[in-house]
Amino acid sequence: MTRVPGWLERIGGRLTRMGERLEERRAAAEGEPHRPVETGAPAPSGSAPASAASAADSAPEPVVPAPPAYAPAVAARPEPVNAVPWGLRVAAEAGWRLLVLAAALWVLAYAITSVQLVVMAFLAALLITALLQPAVARMRALGLPRGLATAVAFITGFVIMGLVGWFVVWQVLENADTLAERVQEGIDELQKWLLESPFHVTEDQIKEIAKNLREAVGTNTEEITTAGLEGVTVIVEFMTGILLAMFSTLFLLYDGKRIWNWTLKAVPAQARPGVAGAGPKAWRTLTAYVRGTVIVALIDAIFIGIGIYFLDVPMAVPLAVFIFLFAFIPLVGAVISGALAVVVALVTQGVFTALMALVVVLAVQQIEGHVLQPFILGRAVRVHPLAVVLSVAAGGMVGGIGGAVVAVPLVAVANTVVGYLRAYSHEQALRHGTPVPEVESASASSSAPSPSAD
């Protein structure tokens, strides 16, 4: 009875070892480590757990077969960032920054248009303050108190501007009848000239054009009435803007330095020294621009007004005032005011007088552009003509005529501020020993801060 269990035990042990060998071969073929198969058979009586563990540790590690020689070599894949071409990466970096900048500008323009009346009134107050502030400084130098000097400059400035506006309206109303007669005579002369011209215009065609104009006016009566009602709203808004500008000017003249110091407190402390130095330079630029523009506009108005007066053009004085006002819109204002004077000369005095008026306007504007502006305004407020055109167009789109007036001085001030901050950062970097590229901008080098300002 004892041999049968021993025989069965030996057969079971052999089957177990055969299974282990098959498992080792399979694991070696698949490249997986071999794990011993747990069996329910009892361990030999002469073995110990420590010897079994050492035998498992000393088992050979499976060897992974090497790839065959004919297998192609597989290159390692680069990082995704390195796989993108350098030019595309630069374009993407610049693109999202431009998108953020465009979004910020759009939000700023939307905010300005939402409170356009307040913004335009404050900007007009800044321009008027820049014009009147030198007078306040001179009166204070003479010993007048700050309140009295501010009141005198404020009242004198707005009285003069009010008298100019009243004079223009009075001249237009006074000469309206005469101008209407002159215009009718000019239209008759123009009609006669068209009939005798080589353009082969017949009288029937002229009558047809006049009939179409009358019909257009008759059919659009409702639109004209609506425009008139809207004009009343515009007048109310205009008067509100004038009151806001007057109050803002008064407080800027009296308490401008304290307002500026309060504004500096809102600037981060790290950037405060640079902004504090850029502010006075920006104000000097704005003052020089307004003063120079007033002088140039006054010269234009006087000489063009004298020219068209001697040419017997009606309403020469109101036209001269319009030329003075439109001169505050660079480039575009001179063209509009000059064209208005030429058109009035054409419809009232004929083609020859209109040509002579055109010669006078062009001569004065050429002298202004090449002699007066460089001499009076100087290099501090000089802006490239392309920047002038683009800024006037953008200002007109955002704020109408008021936006076109304040666009160029804002660009001139921004140019001065950027140049100063660039020079200031360059100087600070040199003081701290930080290598920086050389500042090549003439405006930046010219507006570099002086050592005494620190």
Automatic annotation (TrEMBL):
TM annotation in the entry: 148-169, 232-254, 288-310, 316-336, 343-367, 387-413
Domain of life: Bacteria
Cellular compartments annotated: Cell membrane
Biased composition (Low complexity): 41-60
Stretches the record annotates as Disordered: 18-60, 435-454
Topology class, membrane: Multi-pass membrane protein
Swiss-Prot/TrEMBL keywords: Cell membrane, Membrane, Transmembrane, Transmembrane helix, Transport
Basic and acidic residues composition-biased segments: 18-37
Main localization of the protein described in the UniProt heading: membrane
PANTHER family associated with the record: PERMEASE PERM-RELATED, TRANSMEMBRANE PROTEIN
Family: Belongs to the autoinducer-2 exporter (AI-2E) (TC 2.A.86) family.
Name of the protein: AI-2E family transporter
Gene source species: Streptomyces cavernicola
Lineage: Bacteria, Bacillati, Actinomycetota, Actinomycetes, Kitasatosporales
